[in-house]
Fold this sequence. Notes:
By secondary structure, the protein is α/β, with parallel strands linked by helices. Helix content is 31%, strand content 24%. Helix 3 packs antiparallel against helix 4 (136-145) and helix 18 (614-624) runs antiparallel to helix 19 (638-651). Keywords: Hydrolase, mRNA processing, Nuclease, Nucleus. Residues 1-20 are annotated as: Disordered.
Amino acid sequence: MAEQLKVVGGxxxxxxxxxxxxxxxxxxxxxxxxxxxxLVLKYKGKNIMFDCGVHPAYSGLVAxxxxxxxxxxxxxxxxxxHFHIDHSAALPYFLFKTNFKGRVFMxxxxxxxxxxxxxxxxxxxxxxxxxxxxxxxxxxxxxERIEVLDYHQEVEACGVRFWSYAAGHVLxxxxxxxxxAGVKFLYTGDYSREEDRHLKGAEIPSIPPxxxxxxxxxxxxxxxxxxxxxxxxxxVIARSLQRGGRVLCPVFALGRxxxxxxxxxxxxxSNPELHRYPIYYASPLAKRCMSVYQTYINQMNDKIKNKVxxxxxxxxxxxxxLAGISDFDDTGPCVVFASPGMLQSGLSRQLFDRWCQxxxxxxxxxxxxxxxxxxxxxxxxxKEVQLLSGQVVPLKMSVHYISFSAHADYTQxxxxxxxxxxxxxxxxxxxANEMGRMKSALQRRFENEGKSIEIFNPKNCQTVSMEFKxxxxxxxxxxxxxxxxxxxxxxxxxLLVQKGFKHTLLEPEDLQTYTQLSAGTVxxxxxxxxxxxxxxxxxxxxxxxxxxxxxxRKGKEVICxxxxxxLHSQEDxxxxxxxxxxxxxxxxxxxxxxxxxxxQMKPGVKKASNGVPYRVMKSLARDQGExxxxxxxxxxxxxxxxxxxxxxxxxxxxxxxxxxKAWIVNVGDxxxxxxxxxxxxDCKDERxxxxxxxxxxRIVQALYPIDCGC
Length: 710
Ligand SMILES: [Zn+2]
Ligand SMILES: [Zn+2]
């Protein structure tokens, strides 16, 4: 049985950084730009990074996200959505060139393809003699640090609960839902709701998030239907080949390329007149890329799964692998898929330089091109371009842009957000203008729908702060849940167990049943020299404590002082004080040790003190002599002074509440109030109360003459 209790007053307390309910979201990259995706979420003391990519328009360190804006050692968790370099290629750097010590998660297929993708990226970078941000060795080592998860698999790491949904876009792409203390944050990464030849569209999470961080690549644009784009694409290629031209498709080695290869394979199969034109998939990793795709067919859609029965759908008949430009026999019309996708360097750039001056040739750019890249530049229809050699030449090849990049368009994103209806939206992964247009359009739509959703479009390093107040809930379980009545304002006490942000209240005996904890006792032992006979110690203890008993155990004497506190006799004038440790018995043990040490120093004190420690008697003697210098009256109140000092010798610091005329003693969490005049003790803990009573009784007995009856 379990009950949900709402803790009144929870979640209001101020904390570090302007309150514990403050959530801070900072893009370190992809803030009003496309590239180097990296976002940091801070909430309730947890720091989570989403994605760790490079900017494809830059090289070397400037391509990295603004890591210096955070302390990497404070990042608990890094979740990588997919293998595209603008989301993953800064990971080896972040792992080994910063003091990041957290955990990294991605899906199985993302991890497998990340390895190939980044090897290709490092190779292209090296060939271009750019400043390397990581090498093959870093990449290999990063594989050991990456942990994997499946879609929908719930993981709890670093006190944060999270799981992922299929994002469409590319194989293995995930949207991450993170739950921190009941607040749910969805990070879409790159996503597409549209099903294609091999991937399902992005899922709509069944649990609505409070905040969504969503890509805004296409702003308010709406894509042509997929079949129209496919028609345009295949026709442009066929036309160029038939006029005797060569067709260059600059692509990433993996991802959307596989979709395009499936499309061309199918088109070639149904158009025999094209069979004389070869299609090349140029990548030194071509074979391995294809085998990874074959491995993860189970993560793809039914269309491709159904094809498996007729043979491996990625084992192409009309497409040949090409390891590099040296193997390429450039003799006539052909189609070449070559990386990198933005024509920065590498094979795609070499072929572009070779073919760009011939008007029969065609460049078909099949995906989104970030600002600052050559691919983006040629889309502006420049008359001339600069080759890698530095030579400026006329651009004559035809340039086409038909997007298959599988990013959601405005229609998909506005539907997606409207359905999930979060309280806040943070836009990332979009150029400033596209993002701004999307923000306005979304605001208009939500206003018309009567929804109050706040939308943010932060720049890099600009922090979005928002308050999220969450009621704290405690789950009462087991015997305690059976015992309590659910009434408003009822006080409930039990053992509170916290795991991450979950709280459970239970009876101590249920601890092992409902948690992985078990109760234990700390038995403390201290060996103390004693100068007086052991049995005389019993009287000494009985003068301070009320329940002192002498027992014989295995032929040895044991003085039981309080429940759980015992003094065991030892040879050679030694005694062992033994107690089951808790705040109260610890205090009792301290006072026993103090008494024993005084006896050790002055064994004769026993007769004189009548149970009152020697130090106290000395102070009594001192105080008795003090007189008010003006009135000549004695200032001394021996009873009050003694009680104050004895309490202090037993319990530590004694506060004096002069308005109430009371002493206040704190033992652990237990507070006791002692009225100075009546000696009435108010305390919730019986043990402490009885100990104080006995101590006061002994002092009073010691101070006043004993009535001998004569
Ligand atoms: Zn992507
Ligand atoms: Zn991206």
